[in-house]
Structures are given as C-alpha cells and as structure tokens.
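Project outcomes to date are best conveyed with an example. Our students and postdoctoral researchers have been running inverse folding experiments weekly, and each run begins with a structure described purely in tokens. The record below, which covers 204 residues, was selected by the lab manager from last quarter's runs and is presented without edits.
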C-alpha cells in the first residue's frame, strides 16, 4: 500500500510522516532535501535554477514511486510527484521564473511519467494558512528557507487548494493544520490516526 502526504512548505509533512511510520510500522520515504544539489542555488537565484531544481525533484520522485511499487511494503511518502507538476513548476512559470520553453519541456516529461505510475492508495493533504506555514518554517530554522516570501507561500496555497478540489486519483483525507498540533498533542495525533484507519479499512 502507498500512502502519501501532500502540503505546502512548512505544513508538517515530514513530522507527520515520521509519526505515522512509527505508529503503523510503515516504511517512510522522505523528500531528499539535504542531498539536493540545487536547493541553495535555487533560493539564491530562482530564475537561473528553477528548471534544474524541478527536473531533479521530478526524477527523484519518479524513482521513489517505482521503488515503492517494487518493494511490496506499505510505504508512507513525504510529498508527491503531482505537487511539483501541479503547483511548484506552474507557479514558477507564472512568476516568470521558468521560461515557457522549459515549462513545456518539463510538463511533457511529467505527462510521460504519469502514464506509467500508479497514484497513492490514500493521499493525506495538510491544509495550513500562511501564518501557520510562516510560524513552522521559522521554528525549524532552515537557512535557505529564510528568504521565502509570504506572497510566494500564498500563491502556492492557492494552487494547492485548486489541485485538491479537483483531485480524483484515489482516496483523499484533508487535515486542517491550523486547528491542531499533532506534534505536541497526542490527542490530535490520535484523531488523525482514527481518520486514517477509517479510510484504510475502506481500501480493502
């Protein structure tokens, strides 16, 4: 089984992935942030590095998905391949930070990949307002994220909402992060686990 967690920067994807992997004894697959050779360059010069970064993410997530299907295990994945193509790349293109030529090239590659992969059995979307995202980004204190602008987070949130409203590839669970604190409150985590249990039992 393949469970995936989606959400904006700072929504709490990695933390929830860790907590759920521990609870269910699932195998976690994390976003490759520390090993990413383009991330620092991208935040310093988005226009120059946007295409390189998006291709890197697309390739690494495609590899993740093929590994997940081969593994035969239940995997929980931190961020999906769809978010890059539905949210991040189009946003960079609309901001003028990725050329139309590069974006079209990227989108063609993504469309080819989507034809050979299966979507997750369950998608968990962490919905968070911009103030919540800013607060959580500041708390974790990653240096390269200190320059992320509020309007950039808002644009991403708008795209996330649009994508989720039209999502029809499989089961979907939406969690409003503004209302809970699953890191500090065991009761909040239990509430999420109950919702996931209800969704998973519907998968069999």
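After processing, the design step wrote out the following sequence:
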């Amino acid at each position: 089984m393949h469970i995936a967690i989606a959400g904006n920067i700072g929504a709490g994807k990695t933390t929830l992935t860790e907590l759920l992997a521990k609870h269910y004894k699932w195998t976690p697959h994390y976003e490759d942030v520390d090993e990413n050779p383009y991330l620092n360059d991208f935040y310093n010069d988005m226009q120059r590095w946007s295409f390189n970064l998006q291709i890197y993410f697309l390739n690494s997530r495609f590899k993740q998905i093929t590994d997940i299907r081969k593994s035969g295990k239940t995997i929980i994945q931190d961020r999906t391949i769809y978010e890059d193509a539905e949210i991040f790349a189009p946003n960079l293109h609309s901001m003028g930070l990725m050329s139309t030529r590069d974006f079209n090239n990227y989108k063609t590659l993504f469309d080819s990949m989507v034809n050979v992969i299966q979507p997750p059995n369950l998608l968990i979307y962490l919905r968070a307002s911009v103030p919540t995202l800013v607060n959580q980004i500041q708390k974790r204190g990653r240096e390269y994220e200190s320059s992320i602008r509020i309007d950039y987070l808002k644009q991403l949130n708008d795209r996330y909402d649009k994508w989720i409203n039209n999502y029809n590839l499989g089961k979907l669970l939406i969690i409003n992060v503004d209302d809970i604190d699953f890191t500090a409150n065991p009761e909040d985590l239990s509430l999420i686990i109950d919702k996931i249990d209800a969704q998973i039992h519907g998968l069999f």
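The chain has one domain: 2-201. Helices lie at 13-24, 39-44, 46-71, 81-94, 100-114, 130-140, 150-165, 186-201. The training component of this project remains on track.
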